[in-house]
Specification:
Oligomer: single chain
Shape: elongated
Number of strands: 0
Distance between the termini: 84 Å
CATH superfamily of the largest domain: Tetracycline Repressor, domain 2
CATH architecture of the largest domain: Orthogonal Bundle
CATH topology of the largest domain: Tetracycline Repressor, domain 2
Structural class: mainly alpha
Length: 206
């Protein structure tokens, strides 16, 4: 009998942990890392404060878990967007569209992803940086070799694209263009600019 009951207990534990993560995402998204507190997270999740510390040893570890879940969501969205796309520019365009769409969605988890880190130093920042680096490396692979190395450093191109996409968090409002369309047009503009420079180089006299 105990073997039968154990999975149900584990399931309840996982559900409670998920409830805490979702509540923490809402609180961190609304109030920031420093503004949110564990009592508000507990009240939002419908648990005692002690229940949070059963799953997460500190506010910092809870934030890392929420941030990691957000990065995972964006990673999954990016991978799904580029699956089956073989043209390199189209893959980058699909990735940018997925990134921009997820970043400006209504998920509280993604609300903790901001261009500016909520902390200035220490182990917490290092953990957040590692999570972001793993995600940004996917963009690095997409842009690597896309343009001649003599034309632009791939690292600078990656940072330029991510900075432009992340900047939409500050100014995007629902209107004529969707976040996906904005992401696609950003890459389309880069592609056309690159094509124009290539044509100019071919047509210019030796």
């Amino acid at each position: 009998m105990s073997e039968v009951m154990r999975p149900a207990a584990d399931s309840r534990g996982r559900n409670k942990r998920q409830d805490i993560l979702e509540a923490a995402a809402r609180q961190f998204s609304a109030s920031g890392f420093h503004g949110a507190n564990m009592r508000d997270v507990a009240a939002d999740a419908g648990v005692l404060v002690g229940s949070i510390y059963y799953h997460f040893e500190s506010k910092e570890s809870l934030f890392v878990a929420v941030h990691g879940a957000a990065v995972d969501m964006m990673t999954n969205a990016l991978r799904a967007a580029i699956a089956g796309v073989t043209d390199r520019w189209q893959r980058l365009e699909a990735a940018a569209a997925a990134h921009c769409e997820a970043l400006n969605g209504d998920s509280a988890f993604v609300g903790v992803i901001t261009p500016i880190f909520p902390v200035t130093g220490g182990n917490l920042r290092d953990q957040l940086t590692a999570q972001r680096d793993a995600y940004e490396q996917m963009f690095g692979e997409l842009v690597d070799g896309l343009l001649p190395s003599s034309e632009i450093d791939p690292k600078i191109l990656r940072l330029h694209i991510l900075a432009a996409l992340n900047g939409t968090k500050f100014w995007y409002k629902p209107g004529e263009k969707t976040p996906s369309e904005i992401g696609r047009q950003l890459i389309q503009s880069l592609r056309r600019s690159s094509a124009s420079r290539a044509e100019a180089a071919i047509s210019s006299p030796a």
